[in-house]
Design goal:
The chain is an alpha+beta fold and about 140 residues long. It is built from four helices and five strands. It has a five-stranded mixed beta sheet. The longest helix has 15 residues, at about 45-60.
């Protein structure tokens, strides 16, 4: 019996919440179209998604992912969730400042069968930098 698109996305998010990037990506088609909007073009692909997720779980050892809503519309699933944790390593250009992060995110997933074939990840990059106490957005410290 095949999983519904919502169940497939839930499996992805549950594995990500457990900090198990490999298990999360096991339900993503290797040829999936992935765009991580705050990081800009070009589309990230599955390698970019793996890098984002791996960097996130490494930078936030106490990572907590809380799903607020999961909306299933046929083969498209919208997931609204919050990522929280205390920074313990450089992350997306912000040096480690040991600050608490809580960023609301919305990701759109396209699902075919029991595989995720599209991911569009969205969050407010300015909110992320405010949470990490980056004082000047025009001079982000790159490590």
């Amino acid at each position: 019996m095949s999983a519904t698109p919502g169940q497939t996305v839930r499996a992805f998010l549950d594995a990500y919440a457990r900090r198990d990037v490999d298990a999360a990506l096991a339900v993503v088609d290797p040829a999936a179209r992935v765009a991580i909007a705050p990081l800009g073009p070009p589309p990230a692909g599955i390698d970019g998604l793996r890098r984002l997720m791996t960097d996130t779980v490494a930078a936030f050892p106490d990572l907590l992912l809380t799903v607020r809503d999961l909306i299933e519309a046929g083969a498209v699933v919208l997931a609204e969730f919050k990522l929280e944790g205390t920074q313990a390593a450089a992350y997306l250009g912000a040096v480690n400042q040991e600050k608490h992060l809580d960023v609301d995110q919305a990701w759109r997933f396209g699902v075919a069968g029991d595989r995720i074939t599209e991911v569009d990840a969205y969050w407010c990059q300015n909110q992320l930098y405010r949470r990490l106490a980056v004082k000047r957005l025009d001079q982000i410290a790159i490590v």
